[in-house]
Amino acid sequence: MPRYVALLRGVSPMNAKMPELKRCFEEAGFTDVKTLLSSGNVAFSTARSASVAALQRRVEKAMLDGQGHSFMTLVRSTAHLQQLIQADPFAGFKVRSGSKRVVTFLPEPLQRSPVKLPVTHGEACIHGLDGAEVFCSYVPEAKGPVFMYLLEKTFGKAITTRTWETVMKCAAA
Predict the structure, then answer these.
(1) In which domain, by residue range, is 134 found?
(2) pTM across the whole model
């Protein structure tokens, strides 16, 4: 049975309860549902064959039906995330010491970046793009999430970002 992870944009423990999210997924017919890290990562299996776009619509409808609101959702198979980890896209980039590595997920694959890469802004750097994933690093600073400004300015707001460590946890779920 195929396994997927729904990456929900804008979820925090303040605006979504993980048991409610889990219930919404189960009521929609998904199985082996597991929420990860209380920040909008939901692993699930499905017996029905469907495209990622169809799964995204189904997940968003399940949240709307089950809790009265929804979050923008991007879905990736755990197999895809495992391949991403094995490839270690950050190995080919010069990542500054003390940086956090993040992966930004796009709704659709891009053939090429809208800007010449790498792009830096303060302590943030967009290193590369591979299809529907963008690889970025940043040094945490007091000015807030400068890297999110850089990512949204470059790729728009219909994205969601996870730390490399979270991607590894999602791939193993």
Answers:
(1) 89-172
(2) 0.92
